[in-house]
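Protocol step 4 of 6: structure prediction from sequence.
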Amino acid sequence: MRPLLPLTLILLLAACGEGEPLSPPDARLPDGGRYRGEVVNGLLQGEGRIDYPNGSWYAGTFKDGQWHGQGEWHGSNGEVYRGQFVAGLFEGLGDLTTPGSHYAGTFKHGRRDGEGTLKQHDQTYRGQFKDDQYDGAGQLELADGSRYQGLFAKGKPNGAGVRSDASGNQFSGHFIDGQLEGAGTYDSVEGEQYIGEFKENRLEGRGRYENADGDVWIGDFKDGALSGQGELLGSDGSRYKGGFQDWRFSGQGHLHLADGSQYIGGFDNDAYQGSGRLIQADGRVEAGQWINGVRVRDDKGTLLPDPLDLALLNQGKLLDEALAKVPRSAPPIQLYSLVLAGDGQQSVFLREADYVSNMLRVRFGARGQVTLVNHRDHLADRPMATRENLTRAARTLAERSGPEDIVFVYLTSHGSHDHQLVLDQPRLQLADLSADELANALAPLKDRDKVIVISACYSGGYIAPLKDDRTLIMTAARPDRVSFGCSEEADFTYFGDALFAQALNQTDDLKQAFELARNSVAERERREGFEASEPQIWAPPQVLAHWQRLRRQQAEEALKNKAQPAAPEQAKKPGTR
């Protein structure tokens, strides 16, 4: 038997790990537990181990029959505790793992109490505990990146603290049961800030809100919006004092505009409504009754002609004048442009269209330009963005340009999931522009190399009907995704900003500019917690090469003009300028 002794010792030692030891117990407990260790005067004392019938066990020190001192507990439900015990309970410093959670810290009477770190499911808490709950100073982090740092009571944020959401927007102030209540501050990653009263995390009560552009709202907030008496201090120098409803002018108010004019009277949904008086910058006064921003009667009650009627009579002339300015082609290569702002309800499209037209003229040398705009304030002085005007503009560009030229087309508006580009002029019912209708409108340009850029939701659905070997197409989104940035206050949509205000000011390579813009939009959407719009591109090599020839030609012309000596200044007669 002597040769078998080493093997027997190995088996006994191995069995003393996670399983029950094979050696006979030193005592059997009334609850069925098997104890191995010291027994003094009938009590478990010193080092020992208990194995229970359900598979749970304890190994460590005992005092007077109870777990006491350093030990290790394994429950049949998967619970594991390593640390200090007092009178049979977790007490002092310990480490507890249960299915789905892990805690390292201090215990008191079997509960988490004192300083510790708890990781469970999708959250991690570091700080103070009391009776198994977050209590005292601590920091809670969620898997999505949001977190709260401050005071807790009974497991929830209670007291002074700072909460950051997944996008990095920050709320600070006094919390009650996890809700920001009373005086507090909101700071967004975009540079917006609110200082004032909160109720259940919403802007509620007196406060001051400033957006990233520097516009400031001061007044009474309700359900997260300025509703009641307040003021707006515009970054452009305009200012308003009066009633608001959901951020918009409503009720009686006094508006000072940036151009020096002012209006005193009734408002509704940001428009002049009811009795009011408009004082122009030159001192002229227009008083009377207003409906949706239009004066319909003078101060004596006399019915006035509708500005819409007058503006519609002038639309044909405005388009003819714009098309007449398009010059005929001159060799070797010329750039023509057609820009459309579709939705007149929001000023962002007008601002973006004008920026792009100006950029194509100044930076890329566009000669023949047509810009069609829908906007509530420009029906009388800008040719409208309609399907017919678009068709006539494309026909004129086809007639005036040559086969060696390039046409740049930009459209910005809202878009629908069935791929309709919104054409909307307030007080008019215009037909929207489908992808097939856009292709038909641009058909006169089929023999021209073209760059078409569309900034709208679901605009990827326009690529298939438009694409060919002579048409480069960029869109702000996939066919099944929305794009972002459409608001009254904004200067650009997200895609328009990324492509024109940023990328094309860094490079004149169209494909490289698109990649820069796509990455910029993706990062912005990720930062703000939006679903990715995923801009799309169709880039035929022929069009890319043609564009580069245009840019080389323009660079050579610029160098040639710079190298030519300036003509001598002619002598002037006395008294002339």
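Step 5 (inspection) to follow. Confidence is low (pLDDT under 50) at residues 1-17, 567-577.
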